[in-house]
Design goal:
single chain, 286 residues, alpha/beta, Rossmann fold, two-stranded parallel ribbon, 44% helix
Length: 286
């Protein structure tokens, strides 16, 4: 049995779909049973509870041999992940696959990368097998700019000339599914990127080509961007943590791509062009 956390989110939901297609025995720990109804419809066993509650976690882990650990970014994330790992070890789980971050390197200064570094270390020290999945910027993050792309033909982000090999969450999910269902992925870390290293001006050019209309990238001062996103995030900690990540991209901290998708999945990763085509309804006015 594989236990999924974060399965009602975008990345966790994509992982649940990928695993369900392989007929893997699945269980999901969810807070909102109604929101999780599509998971139940896909044949996934649901346990209603809170990841922050040790009793809920222990209940969900009964009979589980592998687990997918996806926890939303927050100031409580590290505590929740460590508690989950401790409960998993006690329950006899053999293998944890964790959604981490490409920025999770020794000496990381950002709040979210530091959480991932400490969480990864805790997992490795547990004695269980592990696989760390480390993507960078998600293509799906661009959906937050869909409104301005559609209405103003502009995308506003604070990335300067920084480059990123952004990845589609469908590829990230497929790598997670492989790590949970195939042999040979134990005790390995996988950096997952897309096929291209792009500036956000080049990202806008891709939108222009696919949508058939000129889309401009507008580099936005970080302070102004923070004010824009603040109403949509949890609290000041979350705002600061996200802007730290974007500042690292702007400074050139993620300027490389990998062949992880090709090696594990035997195919090319999803391109930005394909992502835009798949989400045309979001980005182009009818």
């Amino acid at each position: 049995m594989i236990l999924l956390t974060g399965a009602t989110g975008k990345t966790g939901g994509a992982a649940a779909k990928a695993l369900a297609q392989q007929n893997a025995p699945l269980r999901a720990l969810v807070r909102d049973e109604q929101k999780a109804a599509p998971l139940a419809a896909a044949g996934i066993d649901l346990v209603v509870g809170d990841l922050t509650d040790a009793n809920s976690v222990a209940n969900a882990l009964e009979g589980v041999t592998k687990a997918l650990l996806i926890v939303p970014n927050s100031d409580q994330q590290l505590e929740s992940e460590k508690q989950f790992v401790d409960c998993a070890k006690k329950a006899g789980v053999r293998h944890i696959v964790k959604l981490s971050s490409m920025e999770a390197v020794p000496g990381a200064t950002g709040a979210i990368p530091r959480i991932h570094v400490e969480s990864e270390a805790h997992i490795k020290q547990s004695g269980m097998d592990w696989t760390m999945i480390r993507p960078n910027f998600f293509m799906q993050n661009l959906l937050a700019s869909a409104g301005t792309i559609k209405d103003q033909k502009k995308m506003f982000l604070p990335m300067k000339d920084g480059k990123t090999g952004m990845a589609d969450i469908r590829d990230i999910a497929a790598v997670m599914a492989a790590a949970l269902t195939q042999e040979g992925h134990e005790n390995k870390s996988y950096e997952v990127t897309g096929p291209e290293l792009l500036t956000f001006t080049q990202v806008a050019d891709h939108f222009s080509d696919v949508l058939g209309e000129q889309i401009a990238y507008i580099d936005t001062p970080l302070d102004a961007y923070m004010k824009t996103i603040a109403p949509f995030l949890l609290n000041e900690w979350h705002v600061n943590a996200i802007t730290e990540l974007f500042a690292e991209i702007a400074a050139g901290g993620l300027e490389h791509i990998t062949n992880t998708v090709q090696k594990i999945l035997g195919r090319e990763p999803i391109s930005l062009t394909q992502f835009i085509k798949d989400h045309m309804a979001a980005f182009k006015a009818a």
